[in-house]
Amino acid sequence: MAKKPNYNLLKDEKSIFLNNRKDDLVHWHRFGVEALDIAQKNSSPIFLFIGSAADYMCDELATESFLNEEIAAELNGNFVCIIVDRDEFPDLATLYSRAALLYGHEGILPITAFLMPDMKPYYVGNYFPAKSDGDQTGLYDIIKELASVFKNDKDNVIENANKAWETLQHGSTPKESVSFDGHFPHPMAVMNALKEFQDSANGGYGPSPRFPNFSFYEWALEQMLEGMIDEQFGKHIIFSLEKMLMGGIVDHVRGGIHNSSRDANWQLPTFEKYLYNQAALLKVLAKMGLLYPSPIVFDSIIKMLDYLQTEMLGESGNLFSSQSGTSEGTPGLYFCFSEEEFEHAVMAENEEQQNPEIAENIDKIKKWFNITKDGNYTSQLNTIKLNHDFKEEIFTPKSWDLIRKVYHNLLSDRKLRIPPITDNKSVASANLLVLSSLTDVVQYCSIDVIRRTASQLFNKILDGFYDVFLTEKPDGGKTIIHTNTRSDTPTYLEDYVFFAEVQLRTYEITANEVFKKNFLDTLTFITKEFIDGEQVTTRRKRNDDVYAHLNLDCSPFDGPYRSAKATLIAIARRGAALFDSTELLDQLEKAKERLTHDVLKNPYPAGEALRALTYPDNAYKVLTVPGQWTSLDKFIKFTPYFMPRFVLNYHNEKEQWWKIVSQGKCELQGSGIDELVSNLTPKENEANLQ
Predict the structure, then answer these.
(1) Cα(644)–Cα(627) distance, rounded to whole angstroms?
(2) What are the DSSP calls for 415-467, one per residue?
(3) pTM
């Protein structure tokens, strides 16, 4: 019998997520003009599957359904089937996750979308089992039903798809303005508005599952450092972060953080790790250490830097996008320990790892780590976490030294296991987020060795970014490639906004004028190519004639990483102060106004927007000092005093003058580093920082 030809077109894809599906029975197309042309010429509906290599449920759905002969036959016979790696086309993921919400499902991966030939959705969901059971309709039945209604009830299908498209185009968020006095509500007004959502038992806000909104915590920490948040609310912020850092959502053994927590107590993570989560936590830790110099904060930074260097850094200096949480077919198996496995690992049979102190204190150690026979995860496994009830015992020099030895032995044992896969794709925006976070560590961390380590890693990744993601344009200059797996993706706002931010932050820690010029040039490009009235478009406007799907207004909310629109407003406001010009910021005024009212309706998931909008214009100040001071230890140790409303600027004159300017007016000036420190030390002259 002749072998049936394979019409699956994924065998040459660089994306691990796509390449893993090359043997599916489904006739997959990659997303692009060719696949869309086939759908439109044949008037065929589209089945669109969007996922990620790190997401367990994406793999679960694909394995159950796309190797199933009946399901594949229905899909191949009735649809043009397109598969998308979320990292390669984030605008598609955003668009159809919003569509999933319209159809009563969640805006999470995987996304299973049924589309008209012009990409308008007529049904969108998430995970479905292959076959129907008593609780949930199966994908097979959904496919048959939706293929049938497209053929037999097309008028209604078109009408419903058009209505969904219209809602997606204009947004479902009410456009009413929010009334408030002054420039923007005081930070305490925001905290009071969220008070009823505080989880005083477990930290954080709202119920499980928990996705830490790190930009919100970063904003709160900055306002605490400015003295703008009352003690009771400040204590909740620190308590929340400490509960996370002690919880199972953090990988205590290797470093880094998992994507989210299934439970309210931060103990049961979804074990995958995404690069953008590491960047977000690193920024928070850098500033948390100024308020709460706990060993868990600084150790978390150290382990994060080592994790990025050891497991996520490619040979070209590019950082990988994610790591799965699944090994040997089981989520969490690599990360968890039974009680017996834990004891065996920490006591260590290897003489080099043995420590009599561990054996003597094994019962106490198990109590600290809340290791039990029944475990807190499947198959009597325990996630690795620290018990907050014993915080006072744990955070002593002697106990913490013992815990570090336990971590060392657990890591040695874990290295013998089969690890989850690493998605070695690199994404420009995620690499830039890490670079920005590393500048925060360099500026705000008080530990010299951590700053040096962060600086060395920063240099590697910055060089890698220029090599991997920047390419020459035919007309001169450079353009950013979104990912190293495809060269034909759109030009995305997120890449250019985060690139501009990195240029500004790099200038602030190096005094190199090239980065200052790059910052201005990139801002100019963004305002020309992505601004449309009050909208800040997700992709470059001139790409609209190539891609059929909607070019959405960038979300004001942070998720899965911080809002590029909010970051744009933040850096434009800092740029206006730096260059003493509001020209670029004026072009964003309508978008800034819209952002303000959107955020005030739901501030917790909009931390980056709070960071962009909280300060009035006269709070932004430019500190100009000699460029040579960036290598002066006394100045380096003083830079943590300057929160983001201060912009660091440099001159190259021999004289050691410095000045502080606000809205074009000099507020304070002097000569020499000693005079600067004397004038600006908060205890002596706190008013100068207001």
Answers:
(1) 19
(2) TTSPPPPEE---BHHHHHHHHHHHHHHHHH---HHHHHHHHHHHHHHHHHHHH
(3) 0.96
